[in-house]
């Protein structure tokens, strides 16, 4: 358990131990869910991945393009239990 003191201005400084546990660094944000009976749940707000990093994520990486017939044969072989593992 980590104990923190509240200043006269109502501020709390999180100890390095807490920051390391949450995985936060200067400039990062944390969020506190207010729970009943004066309790709270604190967690780090992880930054969202920029949309441009998702482009090309499922890009075709095979050595060559496969024909519809080859794809259908592979599907049939898979259903028959003959597919490669």
From TrEMBL:
Gene Ontology MF term list: DNA binding
Protein name: AbrB/MazE/SpoVT family DNA-binding domain-containing protein
Domain SpoVT-AbrB: 1-50
UniProt cross-references to SMART domains, sorted A to Z: SpoVT_AbrB (SM00966)
Alphabetized UniProt keyword annotations: DNA-binding
Signal peptide: none
Native organism: Rhizobium vallis
């Amino acid at each position: 358990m980590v104990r923190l003191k509240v200043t006269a201005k109502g501020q709390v400084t999180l100890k390095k131990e807490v920051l390391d546990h949450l995985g936060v660094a200067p400039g990062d944000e944390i969020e506190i869910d207010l729970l009943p009976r004066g309790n709270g749940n604190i967690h780090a707000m992880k930054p969202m991945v920029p949309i441009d990093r998702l482009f090309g994520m499922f890009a075709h990486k095979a050595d060559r393009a496969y024909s519809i017939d080859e794809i259908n044969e592979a599907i049939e072989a898979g259903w028959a239990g003959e597919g490669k593992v």
